[in-house]
Amino acid sequence: MVRPRLHRGHFAFLRAVAQGLSPRAMWARYLSDAGAFDDGPRVHRMTGWIRDELGAAAARGGDFARARLLRLDLTPPQTQDAPEAPPTLAAFVAAQGLDGFGEAEQLAAWEAAWPPDGAARTRERRRIRLLQRQLDAIHTLEAQVAMPVSPADGCEAWLVDAVAVRLRRAGLLTLGDLVASLQARGPTWWRHLHGIGARKAHAINAFLHAHADTLGTVPEFESDNDGTARRAEACRPLSTCVPLERFTPPVALDGRAGAYRCPRAQCRLAADNDREAILAWLASKGDGQNGGVNCTQRAYRKEAERFLLWAVLARRCALSSITIEDAVAYRDFLLAPPADWCSVHTQPRWSACWRPLAGPLSPASCAYALGVLGNLFAFLGAQCYLSGNPWRAVRPPRPVRTGLDPGRGLTTAQWDGVVQALAALPPSSANQRLQFALPLLYDTGLRLSELVAATTDDLRQEGSPGQGAGIGLDNWWLQVVGKGGRLREVPLPSSLIRQLADYLVARGLPGDPRQAGGAALLGGATDRAVRTPWAHRLTLDPAAPIAPSTFHRQIKAFFRQCAETTATTDPPAAEGLLRASTHWLRHTHASHALAAGVPVQVVQQNLGHRSLATTTRYVRTEAAARRAAMVHFWAAQSTQRP
């Protein structure tokens, strides 16, 4: 669907591949608009086409030597073909135990072990010189040939004629028009266009996404046929509620002249208004890892965003002028928000249908929101941006309890049923992953994010017999990075190490975790080519991790199957299994371990709780055991009564 023209992504891809970087990773980074990655022939065709285009451009300029240089394939030789690189002198001395010898003797021994291969080294030096000249030539031609994608470009400049003609008939003449249409209509933008089906729309979306830095952000592609709900939602009146990153309060309400602002000379924030102060508070919650947004920042942004919008749009008041009466009114607003502040369906943040709420908050969610805002105002007060915190005087709503909390864990009987269902699963790569992962979650109490991020490099064996002595099954520990970046180690039973070895071998990796090269403990299904023949062109890295959402869906589907099996014999147990999730297994681990007599301090360390009080909440006895104990007590008492 995309017309073959050189853009900057082609130059970046060729430079990276020529220097030996992974074609798969570079394709995903620079050529996502060219379709799915495929090993071998497609990479060679793409690099060959780029080299031919560059060579032709150099020849048109009369530089035939540069044209010949650009057509050379100077990719580093594969590892098995390349001569083994000699170790450094220090590494050689340490490996051979030559520490007590003089430097001249050490150097002589090194040269004897690694005699110079004159021809091979000469070829490698020549290849490196030519590669440097080739990279310089690519850089020079990029400035002359590469055409950046611009919103002002006509659709026919980048899309094939058949697609460009259909877009032109719909009034979409330029790429800017096309992007504006996507942003206005959302993921189903293509349904009203004659001659543009799901396949063409998907290719156009991929092209626009690949050039979002110059064209702007566009919604994700959606191919389902049921767009009725979204179209009905789009017909609603537009709202003044927009996400925090797009919200600009009026000058009179932006907080520059807030009633409770501290003198600027005392403030330790560079923020000039309330929105900037919120952003500073959110930045303080980051963990400094790659500049990304963590879960805490996303959750806190949602609460601050809601309150700022309500204060400015509904209360007509700056955040820094909020009184206790305003805070109480906001609490009541969260419990019963107007309909125009709510969205029935979850909407992306770029959509005009986005709303800050999905409906009334539960008392527990409302209490959480007030706690987050209290944290915000405490931060602003500590930095001398505000002089007070009205949330200290606001009482959160008290949850109405309609019955005893059944807990968020599985009973012993439910877990036994889960184990039996696991053993009965048919053989497949995904089922083998589940048969390893569920016992791992139960035996360790890991969070889903911790399990998905774990690799074989995080495993450690105490008293390891060494690399050549075979894999031992005892004394294995898993190093985990938990909440707040806190590091802990969790012991693993020998049965899990045996299962892990079998699972690694099934993925085509060494069974010894120490030799698996940092492979993810949970990987993708490796039998997709057999089970889904239509996907045989997809390639899979057996060491790559599975997406958390994919594994979460698999576990939920498995628990649904377990619930269907027990629905007729034990309806309450089936209802619990329907609500079960990966986090339920964390609760189950704690409850069952404590009930079995594991010291509470040990369970606290396994779960990574800061406070022992958090762990002791899991100390409870199952109903059957409680009643049996009380029956024994009552029987003893009855013998003493007259």
Automatic annotation (TrEMBL):
PANTHER family, per the entry: INTEGRASE_RECOMBINASE PROTEIN MJ0367-RELATED, PHAGE INTEGRASE-RELATED
Domain of life: Bacteria
Tyr recombinase domain location: 405-632
Lineage: Bacteria, Pseudomonadati, Pseudomonadota, Betaproteobacteria, Burkholderiales
Name of the featured protein: Integrase
Organism: Cupriavidus metallidurans
Pfam families in UniProt: DUF3701, Phage_integrase
Family: Belongs to the 'phage' integrase family.
CDD domains for the chain: DNA_BRE_C
Entry keyword DNA-binding: yes
